[in-house]
Amino acid sequence: MARPRGAIEVTCTNPRCGYFNREMGKNIIRRGKNGAGHQRYFCLWCRTYFVETSGTVLYHRHLSEDEMDQIYGLLVEKRGIRSMERITGHHRDTIGRILEDMAEHAKMVIDHLINDLGFTPVECDELWSTLIKNRKRLSTKARLELRKVMPGPEPA
Ligand SMILES: [Zn+2]
Predict the structure, then answer these.
(1) 65 and 51 inside one domain
(2) Among candidate residues 114, 108, 74, the one with its CA nearest the CA of residue 92
(3) How many angstroms is it from 97 CA to the middle of ligand 1?
(4) How far is the CA of 122 from the centre of ligand 1 (A)?
(5) Alpha-carbon Rg of the chain, whole angstroms?
(6) Are 89 and 144 part of one and the same domain?
(7) Are residues 102 and 122 in the same domain?
(8) 38 CA to middle of ligand 1, Å?
(9) pLDDT tens across 56-86, in order?
(10) pTM, two decimal places
(11) 4 C-alpha to center of ligand 1: Å?
């Protein structure tokens, strides 16, 4: 299938679609932006709209991008979870789950930090090492995702 100009990086986020998370044979077009300014997409197979944040940390946690960016900043400052709880007003269990999600979406989070927020690679490393210190019992999936983006030995 010929690709339209400007390759579309996303895959369908509808679990009931035959092309859910499938790159091969997908048929997705851009369709405007939503109220928050995120690119909106349309899957021509299942006729469903979704936005670029679907399937990501931002989408699942119902936190604004500003709130997530505040948490990234606090992690770079090596804040502990209780400190983050006081500053953000979110319960520490919620913050723990956010950190877990961040680890699972590590690649996407890093792209956002560097491209949109102007973080340096060194600051990103600070963020991940703080995350690991804060969250000792990351899931296997989260650990595997972190290993993909963190240089050096596996985090202990
Ligand atoms: Zn679809």
Answers:
(1) no
(2) 74
(3) 28
(4) 38
(5) 17
(6) yes
(7) yes
(8) 18
(9) 655 555 677 788 888 889 988 888 888 989 9
(10) 0.57
(11) 17
